[in-house]
Each structure stands twice: as C-alpha cells, then as structure tokens.
Amino acid sequence: MSEPRKHHYVPVFYQKYFVNPHGLLWVYDRSLKTCKELHPKSVCFEKDFYTIRRKDAPWDRRIETVFSFVDGMSSSAIREFLFQSPTRETISNVLYFMAVQSHRTPEFSRTMKEMYASSAEEMMRLMAVDVGRMQSVLDRYSRDTGESVNVTAESMVKAVREKGIKVEATEMPFLSHIFSQAESTFKIMAQLSWQTLIAPQNVGFITCDNPLAVVPPEGCPLVGFFIPGTVSYFPLSRQICVRLDRSGKPFGNRKISKEKVQVINRNIASNSERFVMGSDKAQLISAIKQSSSEEQDPTPRYTVETVNPDDQGSYMKLTHHPTRYFYLNGFAP
Q: Pairing state of beta strands 240-245 and 34-38?
C-alpha cells in the first residue's frame, strides 16, 4: 500500500478564490483557536479520507478519481461563472458543486456512520427479543450463505442484551451516499431562485469547511431550503456569493453593502465545523468574534435517536440542530 494521500474535503481550486495577493489564506482553526497564514493545500484535508480501507485487500482509492472529475468540471464552471456570462449549463454545474461540497465533509461522514451504527444496533435488539427469533435469524443466515454458525442463539441473545457486541460503521456508508445525497440536494436547490451578490472592493466574503449556510427566518427553530423565509448562502470568491431563496425572482446580480457582507460572513463563520478562511486577517477575526465562533460547538450538528422502540420495531430520528444565525435589521441580507 502506498503512503496515505491528502484528500481535500474543500477543494484547493475553490480555496484559491479567497487567497490574498501572496497566494495564501488566513485560516482560523476553531479547535486549536489559532489564526495562521497557510497555503490552500495545507487546509481542509484528511489522509485517505475517501479511501475504502479493506482489511485483507489493497485499499481502494478510486472514488478520488470521481472527485477529480467533479472538481475539474466544477472548477471550469466556477471560472466561467465568475469571469464570463454564465450559461444555464454553467449555473447547473455550479449548483452541483455546491451540493456535492455539502456532503463530502467530515460532518457528513460522522452522521452517516452514526446512522448506520444506530440502525445496526436496533436491528440486533430486535433479533434478540427472544431465543426463538434469534435462532430463526441464525438458521436463515446458514441457509442463505451455506456457512455453519458456531454460536448458539442463547449466547447471541445474551451478548446483545449485555452490550457485549460493539457496532462500528466503516467508511462505506459515507462514501456510498455522498453522490446520491448530493443529487437530491441539487434537485432541491435547482428549484430555488438564484441571485449573485457582489461585495464592495474594500471588503470581501470569507469561506469555511462547510460553506453552504442555510439561514432560516429569525426565530424559526427549523432548518431547511423550503421553509418560508429561508435564505441560503454559498461564497464562490472573495467578491461573489450565491444567494438562494424561494422568492421566485429570476436570476440576477446585486451589489450589496459592507454591512450585508459582514452579516453573511458571520453566518458562514457560524456554519463552519472547524476551519474558517479568508484573505484578510482583520476581517476574518472580526467575523469570528462577531459570530462567537472562537471555539468549536460542543453540540453535534446532527444527532440520531431511536424512537418508540418495541418488540416489533422502531423509528430512527435524525435531528438537525440549528447553529447561531445573524440578520440585518431583522432580515437575512
């Protein structure tokens, strides 16, 4: 097996649209509470993050080839969008990049693993309701696989009930759902109205490791694209940010004030998981402090819980916990 590679969950080509004249980013790390000037290649990556780690076979990194294709298409689309007259296909490809970006992150990886582990634990609980049910499960396994089972139904029931079996999800739930979930998100976002927000020259947008910020109306405890009054932001460069909502307005460009840029930056900083990046250190630190994002949030963004369990089944509930949100005069910019 070759040495682990850096797998960027925020592509380098995208980060480069926020660099300073030296080609570097100011990066605030909410975990370490540090602010450093770094090259985009040094930010937002994990070693072998998109690798299938087989126990008795070579590790499989083919999904990186898929990401290379998606990133190449996305890089061309964003470049065309920023510097040329965007076509319908260009806008569609930019939207797809935004959808993929929101599902290729460590946060999504943890959520998918937790969902699968919780589902497996609940399935084992149902199997272990009584010895008879467990025996039927073992018999069916032997019949379907042709393999003999060298454990008794009684011992399996005891192990499950006494928490003697620990479930750990591999990377497969995450890797197998990135693009299917991105496709669903893309179809939803394609139904929304699109505006291009243009920042003044003396101030710019920042970005982060989770740059799609979905901002509900003030006071609303729910989060979702279709909730009335919700506005979503995705910065594409220091000067350009995409704004999505349900207004029904046609595609258009809009110059916004410094104050509105600052409010959007607070929402981006608050939506980050760990890293917040920008070209100007003072503006970055200001957004961090004004959004109270100096430290990582102790509450996970998503939680999974089992609801109404009985001997026949249960429901799995996925809860999206809102972050802090910021508004200008009571409204999202």
A: unpaired
